[in-house]
Design goal:
Length: 179
């Protein structure tokens, strides 16, 4: 199990002054699961990390920030990655916290089509920069290509897929009206 990930989640939760109970209520996960995750006794899925990140008001990649703290030339932190899942997140506003929305650049590797739909408070806007993105909302699949966008209620079950042989890069802005 990844104890470092758990420590990072706990640190962010404490910094945000949230209790395990509050995060459990916002994510739908049990206090026991969240506690085990923080102690490295349980594994996280991409879906659980996304829900936890939204509850904590950070991008999912925030859990995987580079430890050296060296900024990129444009002043942002190094790209934050969840590479084990074929998904790479880059927080586009790393120094801006406490907002009602989270702007991210998301890269899906070719064939990334695993995972289950999730729900959370708020809305999401996606804009495809490169490749083809399939968005599942409820029972409906929408295929977007470069230059196309979609806005949807995040309380509906939703998930993103890259069913192509090329990588997909898109902007995602998630709002959390439940905070």
């Amino acid at each position: 199990m990844d104890h470092t990930l758990g420590q990072k989640i706990k640190s962010i939760r404490k910094d945000k002054q949230k209790t395990l109970k509050q995060v459990a209520e916002q994510t739908g996960y049990s206090i026991s699961f969240l506690s085990q995750l923080e102690r490295g006794k349980s594994s996280a899925t991409l879906e659980s990390l996304k829900k936890i990140s939204i509850a904590l008001g950070v991008s999912p990649g925030h859990f995987f920030e580079e430890e050296d703290g060296n900024p990129e030339p444009d002043g942002t932190n190094m790209e934050e990655r969840i590479s084990a899942y074929g998904v790479h997140y880059r927080n586009l506003a790393p120094r801006f916290s406490g907002s009602d929305f989270i702007p991210m650049q998301v890269t899906l590797e070719p064939g990334q089509n695993g995972g289950r739909p999730i729900t959370h408070a708020g809305h999401e806007f996606v804009f495809v920069l490169e490749g083809t993105l399939t968005v599942e909302i409820g029972e409906e699949l929408t295929e977007l290509t470069s230059g196309q966008s979609l806005f949807y209620d995040a309380r509906q079950p939703h998930y993103w897929y890259n069913r192509s042989v090329d990588r997909t890069v898109f902007l995602c802005i998630s709002s959390d009206t439940g905070r």
